[in-house]
């Protein structure tokens, strides 16, 4: 994972502007409120609502 | 801003003018200066937004006049409720627009000056003698580094014909 702690602390969900966190596999950022996952590609989180995927249980 | 509830309306106004946002920060305390407190009260908070659409750096003065007009919408008794500082990111530097003239700032028209806030050298952002301390803070630098990385990727993809 190359998303550092400072970055995780400061990024917000573009939809609800709430907190996000790194998923277990380290390749996505999850917003629990919106139930969306933002993919991390080439170490860059894709923070676009239209590119986010629903979190699967 | 002091009233976080204004965030949604202000963000919507910015989206209408500049298109979709793609990297949004969480709320950060804005407590590095008391400059805005007499106008806006305290405590103050800030958010950083970056936009999906790449812009020409020559557009900065126009962009600042647009954000000034958005600020004017949120005024009571001639006091602003929100302050918006637009800027642009190049691989080599981060530049903010301001209406305040100082020796190190370059006039770019329409009553607006460009403030060279950070330069990128040897793999990191470097502050300058006039860089405001909030732009030198760890979290801010982490955010700006990510935005820089994303813009470089977007720029390359745009000119190589990729969608992302």
Short description:
The complex is a heterodimer of chains A (57) and B (164). Chain A has 57 residues and is mostly beta strands.
Task: Describe the overall structure.
The complex is a heterodimer of chains A (57) and B (164). Chain A has 57 residues and is mainly beta. Chain A has a single domain (5-54), classed as N-terminal domain of TfIIb. Helix content of chain A is 11%, strand content 32%. Chain A contains one helix and six strands. Chain A has one helix at 5-10, and strands spanning 11-12, 21-22, 28-31, 36-41, 44-45, 53-54. In chain A, a hairpin with a 2-residue loop joins strand 4 and strand 5. Chain B has 164 residues and is of the alpha+beta class. Chain B has one domain. Helices cover 32% and strands 27% of the residues of chain B. Chain B has four helices and eleven strands, in the order αββαββαβββββββα. Chain B has helices spanning 7-18, 37-40, 60-73, 138-160; strands at residues 21-25, 28-29, 45-46, 49-51, 75-76, 79-80, 87-90, 93-98, 106-109, 112-121, 124-127. In chain B, the strands form four sheets. In chain B, strands 7, 8, 9, 10 and 11 form a five-stranded antiparallel β-sheet that branches. In chain B, strands 1-4 form a two-stranded antiparallel sheet. In chain B, strands 2-3 form a two-stranded antiparallel sheet. The longest helix of chain B is centred in the last third of the chain and has 23 residues, at 138-160. Chain B is globular. The N and C termini of chain B lie far apart (33 Å). The relative contact order of chain B is 0.15. Chain A binds chain B through residues 4, 6-7, 9-14, 17, 19, 41-48, 51, and chain B through 7, 20-26, 28, 47-48, 52, 138-143, 145-146, 149-150, 153, 164. Strand 1 (11-12) of chain A pairs antiparallel with strand 1 (21-25) of chain B, so a sheet runs across the interface.
């Amino acid at each position: 994972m190359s998303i550092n702690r400072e970055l995780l602390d400061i990024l917000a969900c573009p939809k609800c502007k709430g907190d996000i966190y790194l998923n277990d596999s380290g390749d996505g950022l999850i917003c629990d409120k919106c139930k969306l996952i933002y993919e991390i590609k080439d170490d860059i989180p894709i923070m676009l609502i239209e590119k986010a995927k629903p979190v699967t249980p | 801003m002091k009233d976080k509830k204004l965030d949604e309306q202000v963000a919507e106004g910015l989206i209408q003018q500049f298109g979709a946002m793609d990297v949004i920060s969480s709320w950060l305390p804005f407590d590095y200066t008391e400059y805005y407190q007499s106008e806006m009260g305290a405590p103050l908070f800030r958010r950083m937004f970056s936009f999906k659409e790449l812009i020409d750096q020559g557009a900065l003065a126009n962009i600042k006049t647009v954000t000034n007009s958005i600020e004017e919408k949120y005024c009571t008794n001639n006091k602003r409720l929100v302050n918006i500082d637009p800027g642009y990111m190049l691989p080599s530097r981060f530049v903010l627009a301001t209406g305040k003239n100082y020796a190190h700032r370059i006039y770019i028209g329409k009553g607006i000056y460009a403030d060279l806030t950070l330069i990128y050298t040897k793999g990191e952002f470097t502050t300058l003698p006039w860089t405001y301390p909030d732009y030198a803070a760890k979290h801010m630098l982490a955010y700006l580094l990510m935005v820089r990385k994303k813009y470089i990727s977007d720029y390359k993809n745009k000119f190589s014909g990729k969608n992302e």
